[in-house]
From TrEMBL:
<protein>
    <recommendedName>
        <fullName>BZIP domain-containing protein</fullName>
    </recommendedName>
</protein>
<keyword id="KW-0805">Transcription regulation</keyword>
<dbReference type="GO" id="GO:0045893">
    <property type="term" value="P:positive regulation of DNA-templated transcription"/>
</dbReference>
<keyword id="KW-0804">Transcription</keyword>
<dbReference type="InterPro" id="IPR046347">
    <property type="entry name" value="bZIP_sf"/>
</dbReference>
<dbReference type="GO" id="GO:0000976">
    <property type="term" value="F:transcription cis-regulatory region binding"/>
</dbReference>
<dbReference type="GO" id="GO:0046982">
    <property type="term" value="F:protein heterodimerization activity"/>
</dbReference>
<feature type="region of interest" description="Disordered">
    <location>
        <begin position="1"/>
        <end position="51"/>
    </location>
</feature>
<feature type="domain" description="BZIP">
    <location>
        <begin position="23"/>
        <end position="69"/>
    </location>
</feature>
<dbReference type="GO" id="GO:0003700">
    <property type="term" value="F:DNA-binding transcription factor activity"/>
</dbReference>
<dbReference type="InterPro" id="IPR045314">
    <property type="entry name" value="bZIP_plant_GBF1"/>
</dbReference>
<keyword id="KW-0238">DNA-binding</keyword>
<feature type="compositionally biased region" description="Polar residues">
    <location>
        <begin position="1"/>
        <end position="13"/>
    </location>
</feature>
<keyword id="KW-0539">Nucleus</keyword>
<dbReference type="Pfam" id="PF00170">
    <property type="entry name" value="bZIP_1"/>
</dbReference>
<dbReference type="GO" id="GO:0005634">
    <property type="term" value="C:nucleus"/>
</dbReference>
<dbReference type="InterPro" id="IPR004827">
    <property type="entry name" value="bZIP"/>
</dbReference>
Length: 131
């Protein structure tokens, strides 16, 4: 059993068939649904495009961060190697200084000099002060 909805203003006063009015309403509703579906698809496409753009932006930023980290790690390794070299040089120079000091001490004992030989490495350099 089909129920026909009638518009009280249109069916009798217009003199038209009530089925035509219902068909017109169905047609308008279908058009409205199609337009709504089209807008929904457009929104989804825009959202997908925006998400793809964000993915590309984040991947580029991630790549830049990884490159920066790699550069910093290489600089850290290089600095650590230089630090080790400087430590070895410091130890070598300290041993040389001790050896030279022992030679000076032996020379003092042999020659009987009581005068002290100044060691410029043990006294700090004077820092110039502006007047």
């Amino acid at each position: 059993m089909t129920t026909i909805l009638r518009n009280p203003n249109s069916s009798r006063s217009e003199g038209g068939d009530p089925n035509i009015v219902i068909d017109e309403r169905k047609r308008k509703r279908r058009l409205s649904n199609r337009e709504s579906a089209r807008r929904s698809r457009m929104r989804k496409q825009k959202q997908l495009k925006d998400l793809n753009n964000e993915i590309n932006t984040l991947q580029t930023a991630n790549k830049n961060i990884i490159e920066t980290i790699t550069i910093k790690e290489e600089a850290c390794v290089k600095t650590e190697a230089e630090k080790q070299i400087m430590r070895a040089q410091t130890m070598e120079l300290t041993e040389r200084l001790q050896f030279m000091s022992s030679i000076v001490e032996n020379a003092k004992e042999v020659s009987g000099l009581s005068a002290e030989i100044p060691d410029p490495l043990l006294t700090p350099w004077p820092i110039p002060h502006p007047i």
